[in-house]
Write a structure and sequence with these properties.
The protein has about 140 residues and is mainly alpha-helical. Helix content is about 45%, strand content about 10%. It has one domain (about 5-120). The chain contains four helices and three strands; from the N terminus they run ββααβαα. It has a three-stranded antiparallel β-sheet with strand order 1-2-3. The protein starts with 9 loop residues before the first strand and ends in a 15-residue tail after the last helix. Residues about 120-135 have low confidence and may be disordered.
Length: about 140
């Protein structure tokens, strides 16, 4: 089954600012694998985001992030000290614009790395040694 169609095939990313946080408590974003068409659309949205103004730009950025985001862990409300349950609309409450850009870039980088890794794992035909003619 293609990764983009497998609902259980996910990967985790985190903000650079959380890289030093121990893995057991690090805030992570759970993303789904996207097909090339979705990645192309994601890259194409950059023009629309750049052309947009103010709040429209922010809305577009969050909309794009949500296309690949399926969950998160260890998001803690600083006031209540309680975990924030994942809901797509809550990205606006949890992330600022720079963090959204960082996460979108990491999703795209992961997809490129995964594609490169898949190419490495494709079995190749064994090389044939050139035939030698024998003369008796």
């Amino acid at each position: 089954m293609p990764l983009a169609l497998d609902p259980n095939a996910t990967f985790e990313i985190w903000l650079d600012s959380d890289a030093a946080v121990p893995a057991a408590t690090r805030p992570v974003f759970v993303c789904r694998h996207m097909a090339d068409g979705a990645l192309k659309a994601l890259a194409g949205m950059q023009d629309a985001i750049n052309a947009a103004d103010g709040m429209e730009r922010i809305d577009l950025m969050h909309e794009e992030l949500r296309k690949g985001l399926v969950g998160w862990r260890h998001m803690i409300d600083p006031q209540t000290k309680q975990a924030i349950a994942y809901e797509p609309a809550k990205t606006m409450e949890v992330l600022n614009a720079m963090e959204v850009v960082e996460l979108i870039e990491k999703m795209a980088q992961h997809a490129q790395t995964t594609a490169a890794d898949r190419k490495k794992s494709v079995p190749r035909s064994p090389r044939r040694s050139p035939r030698r003619s024998s003369t008796h």
